[in-house]
Amino acid sequence: MTNAGRRPVTAQDLTRLRGVSDPQISPDGSRVAFVMTTASEERDEYLSNVWVVDVKGGEPRRLTTGPTKDTLPRWSPDGRWLAFVSDRGARKKSQLYAMPAAGGEATQLTDLPNGVFGQGGVAWSPDSTRLAFVTRVGGWQEPEREEDRGKSRPAHVISTLKYRFEGVGFTYDRRPHIFVVPVAGGPPKQITDGDFPDMWPTWSPDGARIAFVAERHETRDIDVNDAIYEVAADGGEPRRISPTLAPMWAPTYSPDGRAIAHAGMRVAEDGHNFLLFLQPADGSERICLTEALDRSAWDAVPPAWSADGEWVLFVGRDHGTYPLYRVRAKGGELPVAIVGGRRTVNGFSVAQGRGAVAFTATEPTTPTELFVCKADGSDERQLTHLNREWNAEVELSVPERFAFNRAGFDIDAWVMKPVPFDPAKRYPGLLWIHGGPHREFADIYWHEAQVEAAAGYALIYMNPRGSQGYGEGFSRASVGDWGGGDFADLMTGLDEALHRFPFIDGGRLGVIGVSYGGFMTSWVVGHTERFKAACSEAAINNVATHLGTSDIGWHWTVTEQGGVPPWEDVGRYVDRSPVAYAPSIHTPLLIVHGESDLRCNIVEGEQLFVALKRLGREVVFVRVPDAGHGFGALGRPRQRLERFRIILDWFAKYLQPGV
């Protein structure tokens, strides 16, 4: 049965969706700037522009135009200017621009050979005359003359473990540093330098200093520790004001300048909670504001101060939801969720003049839209409905949540019915396994799941041990035990789903996962034959080789395996590697891998493919040129659409969803 007049979702709907992100409320709280992104199959790229909407209501209007990527809108403190980063220049490098907030022509402020590194942060000075930003300094540059471009490139001479990074490329010879540029015009001034990375600039309220996060300690090449430094806004010798500890990011001064809130960890190992800290600007001992919550802050969204300086706001991770919390800056109180519900808050900002909060949020049947509320979360109102027309056109599968207990852990799980759904029929099931392992399935609009439900599959997914959002003990329970308790959780959850939802045909099951989910998919088919087909994407198939071929493997892989490197316990790494169980794999397996994946190098897919071919098993290897680790979600539109077709054709061959 289907809703009258509505159609199932298709992969092609990727080009119909409007992505809403990076909400930035003006200082007086009257308007919100945001980024709207669409996928163009014709151009095979994403197009982003800056839009603005009045908080009193009305239709949003576009501030920037053209087939460009305009991102990171930032209001000046006086509300007169809006800065943003764009690749509209001739060299297609992201540069910094500023335009009158009322609209008009944008002025290009930078023309840097390596462009502006937006991930490092962009910040206005308190007097609205300057902008601090990050760019990478140094490195080989593409020749200007056409006749020189075909000549040999220089060799990469590597002397550091941190010489490349997924999504960025080679980093060994390009250090990110802080620059300041005047809005009135003039060349950018480099504020920090040296053979170490400096990121996340933030201005002191008096405009005299800039704080930032850096790795400036002697052992920076063999650890992932950070510290917060402070430097004069005109440059000089930086002063360290925090201990050099685990990873830190997104520092932000309190309105009175006496403290710096930042996100970070106590222990530099994945699976520990990301916490919110308050670092006194005088360098005295910092305090943790969120330890008693036993939930992780979301590292993708920076924290922010309330306008009165009494609170710090942040996005947390709780049982598959991402609420917006606030916590007393003085410490000693539990954080309180001010924006909750079965949804995911994926961005927010605070009007520093008025205290209102703008945020973006998504739920399973609604792509991300923009909202505004008062400082305490009350009087919430939706400001955009950019996907309303599309939402009214399609029928979406609503996830049904359930929980089960195994070995002392309560585990959340979901089932999505096929679309259209006939209760008299039985349907093939797809078990989805998330990556990480310290990530989690959450209440979001998940396009891939909707496409697969519309193709006739029931989807089963869950948050087994290792997932975030359930406390540090739960998240750390998979460390040193990949393929152990997590595998048992998944199989128990699958059995529970089959018991609760009899329309799922247990004789027509597939399994699919990406990254750690790809590892677990490869592991599953090497340890059970209950699945008729599988798709292992961007997987780790040989844990020992992952250590040396991944951009983060030298540290992350070792800590995930309990802190013991392979040269000290070869047997442990063999026992935990799916490729070692290739002789037991009889399930037809589709291996998908991006050829430019630096997180899980394509060698991981190659090893399992060769082993299975030598064994005479049914296996297909899909190599995607110029695709990185998360290309299924972040890759170019044509890559993603082709991936949909390949995966759906693979499972249809073995699971026959139309039968």
Would you write up a description of this structure?
With 659 residues, the protein is α+β, with helices and mostly antiparallel strands. The protein has 12 helices and 41 strands. Strands 34-35-37-36-38-39-40-41 form an 8-stranded mixed sheet, sandwiched between helices. Strands 24, 25, 26, 27 and 28 form a 5-stranded antiparallel sheet that branches. Strands 2-3-4-5 form a 4-stranded antiparallel sheet, with no helix packed on it. The two termini are 16 Å apart.
Relative strand content: 25-35%
Please state the structural category: alpha+beta
Helix coverage percent: 10-25%
Major beta-sheet overview: 8 strands, mixed
Q: Indicate the low-confidence ranges by residue numbers.
A: none
Summarize the SSE layout with pairings.
Blueprint: E1 7-8, E2 19-25, E3 31-40, E4 45-54, E5 61-62, E6 70-75, E7 81-86, E8 95-100, E9 107-108, E10 122-124, E11 130-137, H1 146-149, E12 164-165, E13 169-170, E14 175-182, E15 189-190, E16 198-203, E17 209-214, E18 227-232, E19 239-240, E20 248-253, E21 259-264, E22 275-280, E23 287-288, E24 296-297, E25 304-305, E26 311-317, E27 324-328, E28 336-339, E29 344-350, E30 357-363, E31 366-373, E32 381-382, H2 388-393, E33 394-395, E34 400-406, E35 409-416, E36 427-433, H3 447-454, E37 458-462, H4 472-476, H5 485-500, E38 504-514, H6 516-525, E39 533-537, H7 543-549, H8 553-560, H9 570-575, E40 589-594, H10 603-614, E41 619-624, H11 631-634, H12 637-655
Parallel strand pairs: 1-33, 36-37, 36-38, 38-39, 39-40, 40-41
Antiparallel strand pairs: 2-3, 3-4, 4-5, 6-7, 7-8, 8-9, 10-11, 11-14, 12-13, 14-15, 16-17, 17-18, 18-19, 20-21, 21-22, 22-23, 24-26, 25-26, 26-27, 27-28, 29-30, 30-31, 31-32, 34-35, 35-37
Helix pairs in contact: 7-8
